[in-house]
Amino acid sequence: xxxxxxxxxxxxxxxxxxxxxxxxxxxxxxxxxxxxxxxxxxxxxxxxxxxxxxxxxxxxxxxxxxxxxxxxxxxxxxxxxxxxxxxxxxxxxxxxxxxxxxxxxxxxxxxxxxxxxxxxxxxxxxxxxxxxxxxxxxxxxxxxxxxxxxxxxxxxxxxxxxxxxxxxxxxxxxxxxxxxxxxxxxxxxxxxxxxxxxxxxxxxxxxxxxxxxxxxxxxxxxxxxxxxxxxxxxxxxxxxxxxxxxxxxxxxxxxxxxxxxxxxxxxxxxxxxxxxxxxxxxxxxxxxxxxxxxxxxxxxxxxxxxxxxxxxxxxxxxxxxxxxxxxxxxxxxxxxxxxxxxxxxxxxxxxxxxxxxxxxxxxxxxxxxxxxxxxxxxxxxxxxxxxxxxxxxxxxxxxxxxxxxxxxxxxxxxxxxxxxxxxxxxxxxxxxxxxxxxxxxxxxxxxxxxxxxxxxxxxxxxxxxxxxxxxxxxxxxxxxxxxxxxxxxxxxxxxxxxxxxxxxxxxxxxxxxxxxxxxxxxxxxxxxxxxxxxxxxxxxxxxxxxxxxxxxxxxxxxxxxxxxxxxxxxxxxxxxxxxxxxxxxxxxxxxxxxxxxxxxxxxxxxxxxxxxxxxxxxxxxxxxxxxxxxxxxxxxxxxxxxxxxxxxxxxxx
Amino acid sequence: xxxxxxxxxxxxxxxxxxxxxxxxxxxxxxxxxxxxxxxxxxxxxxxxxxxxxxxxxxxxxxxxxxxxxxxxxxxxxxxxxxxxxxxxxxxxxxxxxxxxxxxxxxxxxxxxxxxxxxxxxxxxxxxxxxxxxxxxxxxxxxxxxxxxxxxxxxxxxxxxxxxxxxxxxxxxxxxxxxxxxxxxxxxxxxxxxxxxxxxxxxxxxxxxxxxxxxxxxxxxxxxxxxxxxxxxxxxxxxxxxxxxxxxxxxxxxxxxxxxxxxxxxxxxxxxxxxxxxxxxxxxxxxxxxxxxxxxxxxxxxxxxxxxxxxxxxxxxxxxxxxxxxxxxxxxxxxxxxxxxxxxxxxxxxxxxxxxxxxxxxxxxxxxxxxxxxxxxxxxxxxxxxxxxxxxxxxxxxxxxxxxxxxxxxxxxxxxxxxxxxxxxxxxxxxxxxxxxxxxxxxxxxxxxxxxxxxxxxxxxxxxxxxxxxx
Lengths: 653, 470
Prior knowledge:
The complex is a heterodimer. Chain A contains 28 helices and 6 strands. By secondary structure, chain A is mostly helical. Chain A is globular. Chain B is α/β, with parallel strands linked by helices. Chain B has a single domain (42-229, 267-468), classed as Alkaline Phosphatase, subunit A (3-Layer(aba) Sandwich).
């Protein structure tokens, strides 16, 4: 049967409808429209429970759920646990022993609330939360594919995201700037850098004749798919080849979303100094001259000569220096507009009916007309529609993400997919209430963080077992979820506790020294130029290069995403290569040496306080003393290394 | 955590199904045992009885010519120097264009074995084992550029970000070895093929399914040897100490922490046992000679093929041995001189390839091991740069052997100049579907929910090529 269907598909592709016809606007049945995520958000009133446990409405929702299931919340975690939890949550770094002592001894009222506020005000907050957003938008600093050309200016977008989080930029504005910064104000550098969002996807560049149409289709696909996944929680990408199998997304919806990008093209805005530009021109001039000559010669060359010319052209290509510093932005080029057609099986050669631009129809009244592709400021229109408070999705999607990062499990467990194949919300009313509050509060994140983190729900201990039978996955939050540190957090923490962390913020990304064999595994190894200033190598992981064809092995074993597709939620896997990395890896061993040198007094106590944020318990103390009671000079560095390998270090309660 | 890799709901549930004597074990080591059994890498039963347990993919990067290897086309030499007759139709190329001329081949073909299959004199060793090979002469893919074609060959998709075959099989079947990784890639020491690291990786599958890279050189596996100045005795103490620290922090039943303890056991085992695997000096001289180990041309690929056999013996699920990387001249990417390029590549790989088949067979391993040979595409009938051939994705050859495939047969055919697969075309996804089937899995059930789709290696559905199954 499948084969027959496939054959029908092929026939349909051959007998393509007239490409001058406009694709139908699509019809959406009441059943399709009734899916929870497409429904307007409800005006929810928090449950009116009276219980001293309830610190804010979040708790009322959670407690109601627990009571219905006959469960009780866990006791509040102790202060040492709490400060470690909130510091990792907001900064991705451990609290210092001094900070821990100060908080534990802070007898003033609202000490915890002040702690949360202090952490939210620190620039480390932006570094941690930008990482989450960068995962979602599959940020990387190279093209991927064969050459994996570096994007030496992509760091500006990363810094823009960090700055936006630190400034608590309203989320609606944040989205508008990224989708349409260049349209909003083409003179504003920040907005231009933000518009680089549209260029974050992998980009295929190959040697030889390239079909321009094919490459352009891939560029448009990247631009459209990420909007669905990151902002709408809709798997728009599934409708590229055919109508969505499960969700009411027609193929025409998909291409109408692409329509907003039909005019969009790359725009590199040079910011290099005149001297730097001159130097670039100087290097390029002879190369360009030679390339011109070669291309000219190519026209009348024999087959054999052609081969030599092509080889020479490839050699020159490898010599081309990095272009002068620029902002990666986009601009509209109405003259270079790509006509958008439905493509059978997503293949650019199988053009079907044409489309203009329109948001997904299931979120619009029936028969909402499309706009022509020529519409001015198209992406701004898309952004306005996305961020309209009446749009049911983006606010839900974002509060759901924030909830997920705080609690280890989002209300909708599939944060990029609010469709039928996604998970249902565990607390639908809470989700709507939070989304409404979020919009009411001007789409700001920090008040939301504050509300979630100061709730009793968040402050619960992770060590309760009361719900283990009734709710083994802890959907109802009868305890806090324990989590393993993310790859970046593990590295940053090892740097911090060994006293080596370079806290410098922002700027071009760092290439650290890595195994030669890894560099050899690149098609263009010459792109990997180890950063000369060694102090840069100890910077936070977010400032190291994210290169598509060389994910750092350390990050890779600890579940960092591959930056090729949007990553909504990192896995937390456990496997032997992690143990080998932490036991034998250069990074952990180097830092263990530095860490051990910091241990000058009561080594055991000091090491535990630095690495785990608490004093050793009697058993740990005994074991450690025994281990250290050894004349072997490597015992102390191995002791330090052991702490990096311990669960008390790698997990946050 | 998705359904299929979740640990059993509780330990009791697991213990009731388990009848071993664990009275003497400590609670934690008992849990570690559970964790091992319940870990996402634990060996899993296939969906139905499997024909094969392991796959060795001899990946010939760059695109070996079908016209110079397994697909004889006498017409080419007759048409040499002429434009392609219009009757053959058009295909899209990277560099070949309408002015290009047909290039005859300098290779000669002869019949070999009982099957009498024609193989070119470029591959005299593989010709000797042709009765064990099932040659697919009608392969085709969708892309004519390296990176995208390599992604499709490895992961079924023309873009990066999707799990490679090796990750899918590890996900579906787990690992048979507790001291070696389930999925191993042995890259070419000359460098990487175009698609780079993303072509081998787990994509959106959990990180446990990522490949272990066994590189050439002093450090074949990252992080396998002890740091400088640390003795094995010290390290043993350290690993014990870590275990004790972690046990001291366990409260009751805790499958995740138990899994961590188990991961350290495995890591320690890998560290002590894996180096033995690399030491091929224990092999008899006759075996070394068979693979060409010790001879300058074949030493590298011979070692890696021999290592592949040793890994199969230890239960490794999927091994990719890469021939080619680092640029056109050190891959099968013969743009400018097909003779020079292919003679070189064949002299490095032909003997070890045939040796692997012979060696697996005489050890009784070929029945349960699939060997797959081929690249991301073949090469054009027309010449590029006078004596070279361009990329060519619309009809080319690969072969499979062992693992329940028929030997000594050819399947499918291209037209008379090898331009298009015209008889029984085999798309990459059909090949994937057939490999999945031989490993005892159902291509639709071997799926993973990712962003609204049940993703599969075969994307939509591949055709099971029943005709080539024994």
